[in-house]
Amino acid sequence: MVNLYDKHKFISKSTLAKLAGVHRNTFSRYLATRSHVLEVLGVSPNAHKLPPEAVRYICEDYCIDLPPELQDQELLSRSELYQKFIRHLQDAEQVSLRLRLEKIKKTT
Question: Count of CB atoms within 10 A of residue 71's CB?
């Protein structure tokens, strides 16, 4: 998934942990291993909400796919990479449908 995080939204550590599918304590241990990077991004170890730059880094580093409501929809719609991704999904869906139809024809 292409992540184009809304540059104006802060997000809590617990929300990111839920999106990552891990317990918040596990996520906190992960964040502790990245404390040197987060400090450069202006995040204190006790921060509850993370600034957009930190969210972007964490999502890329931890491979978290953000739901559409947390992404910048205008930027997403203009992204060439996102458009290619959508076309690829549509092409894959068409191929899958064609294969299913051929399978049905062979069985009848």
Answer: 20
CA distance 65 to 62: 9
pTM to 2 decimals?
Answer: 0.60
Q: How far apart are CA 85 and CA 13, in angstroms?
A: 28
HSE-up of 11 (CA within 13 Å, CB side)? 25
The structure tokens 């996102």 sit at 82
For residue 75, the cross-strand partners are none
> For residue range 56-92, what is the model confidence (pLDDT) as tens digits?
899 889 988 878 777 766 665 666 776 777 778 788 8
- Beta-bridge partners for 11: 50
CA distance 57 to 79: 19
